[in-house]
Specification:
Length: 167
């Protein structure tokens, strides 16, 4: 038996084992009326590179609008969590991009979205008073950090140069 025959037998044995242990399952037919699909279309997307470029070019010293009060810790967590992008996709559809410094993709579907902040007016308040400056600083720091070589990369380079020097 050659190497490929052995590999084939081992592959079949592994698949059989996984199937009997219910780790993998064989597809079964489902009645057509039980299957429903929600179709989503990309409404807009901001790539990682585009977001990084915008974050590096934006001024973080912009002032908060008049009338804003100090933001709570919970509001600041909202700004750095998935809720902000979710609400942006829900409330800002087809309008000016308000989060150009965060990589994200917004989808448009048949189901109505529900803002995490409660409603789109609260999202707008949080965006203007709490999130704009805070998230820009956060993403700008991440963008700068991704431009600098990591300690691991530097150590690996030094190690490679040392090994090359020894030979």
């Amino acid at each position: 038996m050659g190497k490929f025959g052995f590999l084939f037998i081992m592959t079949v044995a592994i698949v059989a084992f996984l199937w009997t242990e219910n780790v993998i399952s064989i597809p079964t037919s489902v009645p057509p009326q039980a299957v429903t699909y929600d179709e989503y279309v990309i409404e807009h997307a901001i790539s990682s590179q585009s977001a990084k470029n915008v974050a590096l070019s934006m001024d973080v010293n912009s002032k908060e609008p008049f009338g804003c009060q100090k933001c709570t810790d919970r509001e600041m967590q909202y700004c750095l969590g998935n809720g902000l992008v979710n609400d942006h996709c829900c409330c800002d559809m087809n309008y000016t991009e308000k989060l150009p410094f965060i990589a994200h993709t917004c989808y448009f579907g048949r189901q109505l979205c529900k803002p995490v902040a409660g409603d789109c007016i609260e999202y707008q308040r949080l965006l203007l008073c709490c999130c704009n400056r805070h998230t820009l600083i956060h993403w700008k720091q991440k963008s700068v950090a991704s431009n600098t070589p990591s300690l691991k990369a530097i150590v690996m380079l030094m190690l490679a140069l040392y090994v090359w020097y020894l030979h």
